[in-house]
Design a protein that fits this description.
This protein has about 475 residues and is of the alpha/beta class. It is about 35% helix and about 20% strand. It has 2 domains: about 160 residues, 3-Layer(bba) Sandwich (FAD/NAD(P)-binding domain); about 260 residues, Alpha-Beta Complex (Polyamine Oxidase, Chain A, domain 2), CATH 3.90.660. A 7-stranded mixed beta sheet has the order 8-7-16-17-18-15-19. The protein has a 5-stranded parallel beta sheet with strand order 10-2-1-14-20, with helices on one face. The longest helix is centred in the first third of the chain and has 23 residues.
Length: about 475
Amino acid sequence: MSKAIIIGAGIAGIASSIRLALKGYQVEVFEAGSIAGGKLSEMKLNNFRFDMGPSLFTMPHYVDELFALAGKNPADYFQYEKLDIVCNYFYEDGTRISAFADRNKFANEIATKTEDSAESVLKFLEKSSDIYDITNSVFLQRSLHKWSSYFSWQTFKSFLRFPQIDAFRSMNQAIESYFKDYKTIRFFNRYATYNGSNPYKAPATLNVIPHFEQHFGAYFPVGGMYAISSSLEKLARDLGVKFNFNSYVEEIVIENGRAQGVKVNGISHSADLIISNMDVWYTYQNLLKDFAVPERIQKQERSSSALIFYWGINRAFPDLEMHNIFFTENYQEEFKQIWDDKSIYHDPTIYVNISSKSKTDDAPNGSENWFTMINVPSNTGQNWDELITDARKNIIEKLSRNLGLDLRKYINCEEILDPRSIGSKTFSYQGSLYGSSSNSQFSAFLRHANFSSKINGLYFVGGSVHPGGGIPLALLSAKIVDGLLK
């Protein structure tokens, strides 16, 4: 039986272990942390539970697919509920927009609350759907670094429709061609943050992202977001995968141009192939002793990072949903601060996730668990202590102003995650959440391949390589590697 070793038990690493076990490999996973999940982990603070990382769940069929491949009933391992309201949006003038899962209801909501029409919303969502249809099979589910990916009728048809993916305008330019109300424009520009990019620079191709949410829907897993990781880990174990926690891989052993195994705590473990779920920058920097980080990877602009306050709140807020956004009044300036000045705007857009809205035992009765996040630059040596102090003050003032109370009185407990700790805890270079940014037309092609062109038997999965960051794309990276091993 051939043996495979996977470095890192993030969601892509776990998915890879399942796929390889189903191919008949003996699979062993080495994880530096104490639990599986990577960014998709959990934390308990006083009597509150928090999902640490991704909080919005879309395209659950990519998770279900793994159970189905194993011949299992997904519901026996993992269940989830569709949200009727994806997110509530709050504006400083008192306007509140609910993003309903039903697209017609959502379009009417925009028409009621802004100067834009329902027809313009539906037209934009149709464009988003078209971009998905063109790019999905070619750019998301195949390697962009194999010539064989380009020699198919499906690929040829997609390239004939290439002008329709709108690659030569920015997201914002395309959005402004559909809408006139700044509230609506901010609403759709926000989707750039789903992969850590800047809507004023990123290509309008990224206007595909609303399709993931409005067409496929948004969901909440029973048990919280961490249930995604834990249920897939259980499936992997049921298939015979061995997990080794608190086991930091020190080196990938290369002999005669081929990956032969890894060293963990000075002990060698041999394998027929290696899959790294570690950030590709760290894989080269720390594990491949005789291979420099590729110059292209070193020069690539990193995605944005996050500053997260995990707050136990001694109060219930009936007007808030599970997902809530409080918009800045000057979105362009906020992104300028993040991307050009590498700093934090004094009036940031704030995301508040409250999983206790659905999973009531995540907080004591009458209380709520707030995952309070703003987008910030990656870590390039800023004075984060000072930036965090100022940001915390500004966030509390903004939320208090919008909610009509002094929020400080209700904060029971607090934990903070910033780009420095994101980098150290998840081995994400510079604390970036999605590897490289997508702020250029060719960024999809510049991401590192899912395989090494110089080392046989070495593959890469996760958010730092093709096709990108976020749960669905991380799962697709494992699917792409699975296809390469046929």
